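**Polypeptide and fold**
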Amino acid sequence: MRVLGETLTSTYQWLSHLKSSQLKNIAHVTGIPTAGPKLALALRLQRELPQCEYLPPELGASIEPDSSARRSAGQNGVQSEMDRDRGKGNLSILSIDMGIQNLAFAHLLVPGPAMRKNGSSRFTASGSPIPTLTAWHRLAVSAFPRSSTLGLSSLPLSTFPLSQSRPRKQKVRREDESTQPQPSSDEGAAIATGSAEEDDKFSFAPDLYAEHAYTLITSLLATYKPTHILIERQRFRSGGASAVQEWTLRVGVFEGMLYAVLHTLARERGYSIFVQGVEPSRVARYWYGDGENDVIQEKGGSETTKKKRMTSKEGKKAKIDLVGKWLCACEAGDENINDGVTKISSTEGQKIDVAPDDNVRRVVNSYLRKWQGKKTTKSRSAVSSDEGSKSDIGKLDDLADCLLQGVTWLDWHVARAEILRHGADASVVRDIILNTGSAKTA
């Protein structure tokens, strides 16, 4: 302990009095890696806790930002608005769940710490900010149009193809070619163009996906003007097979392209955007721990504790359920919910808010209907009929992942800000010391 106390600065001397397990719990609730012995963990906390993106005004000037994740330079139209938000302490978070057929993203607007003093209703009773969900989409990157054919460097988001399900293989019916009419030259050119576009959907040529990466990033920046971009970290997965599956390699390559585009824009255009990769496993552990020591109900009625790690399928369902509860909690008193959704009050308090935007509310309604197991019914009006035709949003896990990732990252930095302000007297630290905050509960 003497060595640790001599190594830490005066601001973090209180860390030397904590147990190794308590240090790990502090790292756990602040999104910091928990591996390593006590000395290494304490030094890591001292180094990474100040890398906080939700600093109150009184601490902002005394703590250096994380230069490794942020790039800054000159000014332009988009950048000026980003800087104005950052000056107010407001956050515009774009959270991306990686994929080729199913790339999902959520955009969250977060009130700055300064607004809490003004009695803003966008904070919980404990003082945590309530982010507002302003956009929630899943896109099929493989179906993006080639920017070179349109002559555009970026496209309006409304032109992006939405992903609803994986493409099905069509059965080929062989017929006598002599009985088929031969296409004219114009028709043949159109067919050739269509075939080329269809081939692009199933191609993974690096030059094609470099175009897709540039189009996606520039369009998202122009549309949402984020101050922070979170990208799901990829890992090589074999799915139980002897070799790594090819699609995981493709998603990993596309992930690198997104970082390359963002880095280039930062250097060439002077964007100052916080960009960080987020490990899905760390997000899951924040809410559900390691999936061990679950209480198993036996047939006889008694309970026993059995070590059981949560499976991938169980983890997906748990995350989908958690996001569903959040949406129900924020929509319980909202009259904009369609008839197909059951309104449920939540005792967990409001975690997010939903912007009064037709597009995002349509996705929220569709998510809740599918999560609650309700089939889309025929609508009573033309408007509701049109909404019903768009209500099948396909898989829920991608949408849940990107929203959960953004909210969890915000929780980590709110906890860091509290520790930076109060040190050992922070409520999150006191809870850990009292062994009541050792694991986050959903």
Summary: The domain at 66-164+199-288+405-413 is CATH 3.30.420 (Nucleotidyltransferase; domain 5). The mean pLDDT is 76. The longest helix spans residues 397-422. The chain has 15 helices and eight strands.
